[in-house]
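Supplementary Methods. Inverse-folding protocol.

Structures were first reduced to a discrete structure-token string of length 200. This string, shown here, constituted the complete conditioning input.
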């Protein structure tokens, strides 16, 4: 089976964010850099102070306790999102992607139902796309842009490759064999005329 480091964003939302035994609030989102899809900060609803949200740099993360639905950080005070530097964009919010359309080759393939996060590397790993026939996965590496209007995420894949992908049945069913089948599907010569992902 796939290693325990993968989590669905919808499952993580609402986890308690802790520093030691002190609750800091509930996780409401993850700020990421759209240049490399790396998560920069946890977005936390702070019920104690007058601020609506606290953004805690992901470098302060220490542990995940699924049984208690907790994310543990070394956080002792003020924290801000890292500023965008050379080669990095202003962080975007992962939860804001939920429900957005996904398009390939100028055609809509579906909408984003969830995102899969690697909590070891804190990278966005997969999109879970809801199509007309069910839910499928596509690797985040095939996302070319968020779209200038912020409403559509573009893929370096034809829409037919997404809608025809193997069904996603949950992380507990995502094994190495499933990942291999997924990549064989997306790199098939069937899509060679429509995208750059087909292997020689």
């Amino acid at each position: 089976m796939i290693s325990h480091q993968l989590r669905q964003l919808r499952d993580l939302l609402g986890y308690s964010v802790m520093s030691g035994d002190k609750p800091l609030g509930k996780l409401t989102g993850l700020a990421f850099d759209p240049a490399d899809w790396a998560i920069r900060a946890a977005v936390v609803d702070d019920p104690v102070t007058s601020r609506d949200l606290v953004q805690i740099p992901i470098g302060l993360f220490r542990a995940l306790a699924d049984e208690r639905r907790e994310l543990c950080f070394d956080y002792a005070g003020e924290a801000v999102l890292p500023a965008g530097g050379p080669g990095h964009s202003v962080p975007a919010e992962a939860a804001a992607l939920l429900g957005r359309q996904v398009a390939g080759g100028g055609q809509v393939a579906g909408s984003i139902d969830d995102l899969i996060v690697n909590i070891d590397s804190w990278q966005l790993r997969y999109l879970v796309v809801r199509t007309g026939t069910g839910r499928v996965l596509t690797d985040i590496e095939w996302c070319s842009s968020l779209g200038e209007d912020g409403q559509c995420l573009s893929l370096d894949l034809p829409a037919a490759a997404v809608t025809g992908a193997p069904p996603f049945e949950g992380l507990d069913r995502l094994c190495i064999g499933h990942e291999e089948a997924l990549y064989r599907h997306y790199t098939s010569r069937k899509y060679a005329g429509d995208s750059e992902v087909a292997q020689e």
